[in-house]
Design brief:
With 94 residues, this protein is mainly alpha-helical. The protein is built from three helices and no strands.
Length: 94
């Protein structure tokens, strides 16, 4: 495995772990400084990065991970976008 691919996989696994920890970690009280608009933008950036990673993967074992990672990022983005719309939070397009 070349170094670039190995580093991409390592970065993706770290992000996946952080996302999983945020969903399954201990419940925390609501933060006053939670910026839903910024969370939507960050989730969109994660989704784009996951799609780009999927486009570069060629190893069959990594393709499965890339698909899972891309779907998870898309679902998180969709969830946050729906939540923002329900709360009347404006999110910049683009």
């Amino acid at each position: 495995m070349n170094e670039r691919l190995a580093q991409s996989l390592k970065d993706a696994l770290i992000k996946a772990g952080a996302v999983a920890a945020s969903f399954f970690g201990p419940a925390t009280p609501a933060r006053e400084s939670f910026d839903l608009s910024a969370e939507v933008e960050a989730a969109k950036a994660d989704w784009v990065a996951a799609r780009q990673y999927f486009d570069t993967v060629t190893d069959p074992d990594l393709i499965d991970f890339a698909v899972y990672n891309m779907e998870a990022a898309q679902r998180r983005y969709t969830y946050l976008l729906k939540r923002a719309r329900a709360e009347g939070v404006r999110v910049q397009a683009g």
